[in-house]
Amino acid sequence: MSVGVTVSGFLDNLSRLNLQQLSLRLVVLVAPMVALVAEARAGAHVQTWFIVLVVIFCAVSALLPDSHTGLLVVLTVGLHWALALRDVTSAWVLVAALALLVFHVAGVLASYGPTSVVLDPLLLALWLGRSGVAAAVTALVWLATRVGSGLDLPANGLVLGAALLVVAGWTFLLAHRLVSTR
Amino acid sequence: MKHGWRPTAALVRSGLGSLSLVVLALVIGRPDLLVLAVPLLVFTAAGIWQRPSQVPRVATKLVHSTLREGEGTAVRATLTNAAGVEHAVLALSPHRFVAAQPATGVRAVTVIVPAATVLLDAPIGSMRWGRRSVGDGLIAATSAWAGFRWGPVEMHPSTLTTLPMPGRFDSRAPTPHPVGLVGINPARRIGDGTEFASIRRFYAGDRLKRVQWRVSLRTGQLHVTSTLAEEDSSILLIVDATADIGVSGGTTGASSSLDVALRAAGAVAEHYLRRGDRVGVRVLGTTKRSLVAMGAGNTHLRRVLDTLAQIVPGSSAAFGYLDPTRMQFGASAGTMVIVLSPMLSDEAISATVTLARRGLSVIVIDTIPEHLDFGEPDPRRDVAWRLRMLERDGLLRKVSVAGIPVVVWRGPGTLDEVLRKLGRRAAMPRMVRR
Description:
Chain A is an all-alpha fold. Chain A is 79% helix and 0% strand.
């Protein structure tokens, strides 16, 4: 298959976008920008080249929601947050987390089928509920971090080691599940 | 190729994204990064927790394998072992003259309560007669929390037979040579019918209710009213499929010559078979089955329509090697032959004239539509078409010289006038060509 045919097929698919899919892809494009705004409001200096990079990643994610470009968006925004800011537990971190949540859910919904698929209101309601659960858990964790930062606990190697063990166990479980399904 | 459940891009994104952020949060001691990771962590955990254990299987079929033009059916995809399926989507491949609902051919279903079997119906409609493969496309299923995806899996096509649209046709004129046993066409012989024949003297065996009292009193001798017998007719439909003139737009667009011919043939066959006459079909051109012997009844109507639906338009390669004068038409004496043709080929003209010379009543229905659609405008083609029409006038003159009437298809009443004329001609003495 030639590149021309592939491109024309891709453009044909895009031309079949319905209003629902168009809205979802718009959310995919915009949500990480909200995270960047939150980062800036939290005190980070967000460079133009970085914004352009994220916009490019977001645009590719919006055009190809079933690709792994979305992972690049999450990692880029997360790493920039880690590098550009010092331990921020203000409400802006919650806003950024919720923006990433919205980005992820919009990407999931956009990747459910071909560009012309119309999603059932039942499915949209289901994902609204799921997003609500995830948002609630995020808010609880944020509150816990606020409390934790207020206590000003000293660094503890044992706690860090235990936490890393939990993460390693989780990673093992995840990897096992992913590999066993192939 | 075996299709199983595979992690979606969304699961990979949430899994790796959240893992990276959590590790970073622990290593550099940043709880804010943990907050960023939490929503993705929730989706990852839920997605993996809801991982399906059974691999679905798909079977597709058409709800109805035979339709009339313009009617609809559905492609039904049945997913079994579908306990882990939360959302299934089906995308049908587009085909000419097959309309889908929605037009994109994409249908999706959400399964809230897990079920072992998931049905997915994609409505389709057939817009033109013929046999075509439909129902091919792709189907995919997604598990709960969009963690895993099965497919897309290719669906196998099924054959959809579309019978010609039941055109409107009615004829009140009797057929010229009814030669059967029972029917509704007034025959030439005297018999027990309803059509008046003559008033004649009473003979032993005549029914008393037939006595014509006025004439009997006037003449002083018993007279009776005699009637014509009523018999069924044999109708042979000859469909010229050697060429398909014009671009067909299906039931909603312009008609091609073969569209007109097939819809007219279907309507005429339906009309005469419902009246109890016998109908046969001969297709000129390459088709899988080109001859349907004379028969009667509803089953025979289905056989006729099925044969018409199998015609492949424009495939006339084999016809050039056939001699129309030697072709077997299965037409016995008294058969009325209706030729449905655009009258553009010598072969069709030869076949028509040959049948007329055998002493059969032949009528030609001109199937060139009133408004022909040739697609893109082309002045050179228009000139060529005018030349072709001039040639056709010459061919039609040949037909007229042989005493064969040519009528344009108009639906109800198309054949009435010409059938009455043929009936009168059949009653007149004539010279037979030997």
